[in-house]
Amino acid sequence: MHETILVSGATGTVGTELIEALSSENVRVRAGVHSIIKGDRFRVFPNVDLVEIDFARPETLRVAYTGVTRVFQITPFVENQVEIEKQLVDMAKEVGVKQIVKLSASGADAEPGIQMGRWHHQGEQYLQNSGIPFTILRPTSFMQNFITYEGASILQEGKIYQPLGTGKVSYIDANDIAAVAQVVLTQPNYYGRILDISGPEAISVEEVAAILSRVSGRTITYVDVPEEAARQAMSSHHMPEWMINAMLELNQTLKAGYGANVTNTVAQITGRPARTFTEFAQNNAHCFIPE
Ligand SMILES: NC(=O)c1ccc[n+]([C@@H]2O[C@H](COP(=O)([O-])OP(=O)(O)OC[C@H]3O[C@@H](n4cnc5c(N)ncnc54)[C@H](OP(=O)(O)O)[C@@H]3O)[C@@H](O)[C@H]2O)c1
User: Is 53 near ligand 1, meaning CB less than 6 Å away?
Assistant: First the structure.
């Protein structure tokens, strides 16, 4: 039977990389997009179809899931994440999906853990108990966060504001997560596996700033902000209280060194080494150099 792989959250950081990776496979791909306009960029791939998914409108799920054989399940960081994940797994079960690969997060099973991890763990457990063959990916923090969240201050001021002290993190390139996902979705050996995925080295934000300076030819410095200042900055951007608390909790664990674990998963599964931060910076140099 021909495989049809659905990717939810397809226009996000990992989804975008995964759709591109799957465009070279002999499968049909459904890019599950919140907004059809944002999915326009996928129309260049002949094996990719766009399908609307709005988690707030469950009726969109049935159309998106009908005829699908495998799902790459990406959910955003929202307060009802667990509820959404349950809905997605239930729909997959109803239409007879034969594998769900869930994008989770590093440390999801830590005790007592942090809010982000606990929500992912609940989603993992629901999936594991569903009877649908599953694979769980638990990546560390994405290198792309330095574009998504720090890109503006890097471009405008040459500064990275974070409350991470000297904490080292084994940042992963989202492109490598997609490369692992591509293998896991197209080869049968990964059912029931939980894969911890990291970059090749743990580095501090100070080291990140040094790499970005080298690659961009600019001076980019790290400003280690006190937690209270980080709270105020997020508050001034109208971030909800629950999200601010969850972000600060995450940052405390990273500052304490809990994000530094390095795994060999990318190399083991894809046959090529995980990208270094320098390679990431070189590939995305335009994001760090003002026009
Ligand atoms: N960032 C990290 O460092 C990190 C590390 C480990 C794990 N994770 C996990 O990775 C996941 C996020 O992945 P990502 O960073 O690739 O995603 P992302 O860039 O945050 O994108 C989220 C995607 O979900 C879509 N979306 C948002 N609301 C939706 C709705 N109501 N209905 C349907 N789609 C909706 C978005 O579309 P629109 O933009 O059009 O709304 C977008 O395509 C989270 O579960 C997070 O916990 C992240």
Answer: yes
Query: Whose Cα sits closest to atom 6 in ligand 1?
Result: 105
Over residues 55-98, the pLDDT tens digits come to 999 999 999 999 999 999 999 999 999 999 999 999 999 999 99
Using CA atoms, how far apart are residues 93 and 65, in angstroms rounded to an integer? 10
Cβ of residue 32 lying under 6 Å from some atom of ligand 1: no
| CA dist., res. 220 & res. 230, Å (int) | 19
pLDDT of residue 1: 55
| Bond before 139 cis per omega within 30 degrees | no
Q: How far is the CA of 5 from the centre of ligand 1 (A)?
A: 18
Q: Is domain 4-139 given the CATH code 3.40.50.720 in the classification?
A: yes
| 143-172+198-260+275-291, CATH topology level | UDP-galactose 4-epimerase; domain 1 (3.90.25)
Q: How far is the CA of 266 from the centre of ligand 1 (A)?
A: 21
Ligand 1 closest atom vs CA 11: 43
Structure-block tokens of residue 172: 């992963």
